[in-house]
Specification:
Blueprint lengths: L9 H27 L12 H4 L22 H15 L8 E8 L2 E8 L2 E8 L4 E3 L3 E3 L31 E6 L4 H17 L4 E6 L2 E2 L5 E2 L4 H16 L1 H14 L2 H8 L3 H10 L1 H16 L9 E4 L2 E2 L12 H10 L36
Parallel strand pairs: 6-7
Antiparallel strand pairs: 1-2, 2-3, 3-4, 4-5, 6-10, 8-9, 10-11
Helix pairs in contact: 4-6, 4-10, 5-6, 5-8, 5-9, 6-7
């Protein structure tokens, strides 16, 4: 005889519903914290808590006025009031939101705001009293001032005159090896490194994190971390093979094949990976966290000229093309070298693996 599933008591059902509601609320608060920055505690009106959980605005269908006072303010006034309140009370100092549109929806105003490139919908009662952004805010009450935003790094160099000059120019790109935009950057850098040889430094660095056990980590998991470490070992211990390997790798993605193609000493590479690779990666992690991130490094790739962050797409719409990267390197030279006058390919490499001239047109993305 099959066993019947025990029935839930009314108390258990209420507890389950409450747990689901709390989970939804926590997820919404977490999302809003990520978008707007640090949470602020507003004045929560008990009678309006049901707004917060799922925005149960259907309860107000049929209202001709506001569900609070019955008064109605104009769309223009609610737009200004919502933006002003969020900027003065919710987002971090030094940042701001703007209004994109205002619509009426089920007895409320739906105000679409723009914050750091993201469109974020918020709700307000039509009398301009309550603001709903995960917590219900009473807009007649002021909150404590939001914390100051951390000091931002200087804007990346955008013209040749902005680029820091050096006797021997050094271009660095921080990447992760399985990011399609990272391989795109290395693809373009290969031709620049080949052109200048030891007359300039063209260096690939690897964005690295550290887990709770002190082990290096990569953005896209263990396989990427292993490849980052292999490439770092080549850069440090077989530099004469590094760029030949990279050239093959960014075109094919075939690591083992590229070892053979580039003439890599595989035994020496394995020895480095097992015995010294971790230390190399932890040094990458330390440099990224303490030097390059504070200087503006963000994703893969992040380009630096003579230690200063640059935006390669400010110099050309084909920002990662060999010719544009060559021109940027030459901008960092006290004295122009003859190689600066040579023409390289002006096309962007493909995103991901592939030869220049193949794949889809690229955009200035990063991982």
């Amino acid at each position: 005889m099959s066993r019947k599933r025990p029935k839930h008591t009314n108390s258990e059902k209420r507890e389950e519903k409450e747990e689901v509601k709390n989970k939804k609320k926590a997820e919404k608060e977490k999302f809003l914290k990520r978008i707007f920055g640090e949470e602020k505690k507003g004045v929560v009106l008990v009678a309006a808590v049901f707004f917060v959980i799922g925005f149960a605005i259907s309860a107000f269908m049929g209202f001709s006025g506001s569900p609070t006072t019955g008064m109605v303010v104009s769309k223009e006034d609610i737009s200004a009031k919502v933006v002003d309140y969020i900027n003065n009370n919710i987002v971090p100092a030094g940042s701001s939101v703007s209004a994109v549109s205002v619509e009426e929806e089920n007895g409320l105003y739906l105000v679409t705001t723009l914050y750091q490139g993201n469109e974020i919908p918020v709700y307000a009662t039509k009398d301009g009293i309550l603001l709903l952004v995960g917590t219900v805010y009473d807009m007649t009450q002021e909150l404590e001032p939001p914390p100051e935003q951390p000091e931002q790094p200087e804007q990346p160099a955008a013209t040749c005159d902005d680029v820091e000059k050096a006797e021997k120019a050094k271009m660095e790109a921080w990447v992760v090896s399985m990011c399609p935009f990272g391989t795109q950057a290395m693809n373009g850098m290969y031709y620049v490194a080949e052109l200048f040889g030891d007359k300039a430094d063209v260096i690939v660095r690897y964005i690295t994190g550290v887990d709770g056990d002190g082990n290096p980590t990569a953005m896209h998991g263990a396989d990427e971390q292993n490849e980052n470490q292999r490439q770092t070992c080549l850069r440090e211990e077989q530099p004469d093979k590094f760029w030949d390997y990279i050239h093959c790798y960014v075109e094919t993605g075939e690591a083992e094949t590229c070892e053979t193609t580039a003439g890599v000493d595989s035994d020496a590479l394995d020895d480095c990976f097992e015995n010294r690779g971790k230390d190399y990666m932890l040094q990458e992690a330390a440099d990224w966290a303490t030097i390059y991130q504070p200087a503006g490094g963000r994703g893969s790739p992040s380009f630096f000229m003579n230690g200063v962050k640059i935006n390669e797409y400010s110099f050309s719409q084909n920002g990662r093309s060999p010719d544009n990267l060559k021109n940027i390197l030459c901008c960092g030279m006290n004295t122009q070298l003859p190689e600066c006058s040579e023409q390289l390919n002006t096309a962007n490499p493909p995103r991901g693996y592939g030869k220049i001239g193949t794949g889809e047109p690229s955009n200035p993305g990063s991982c």
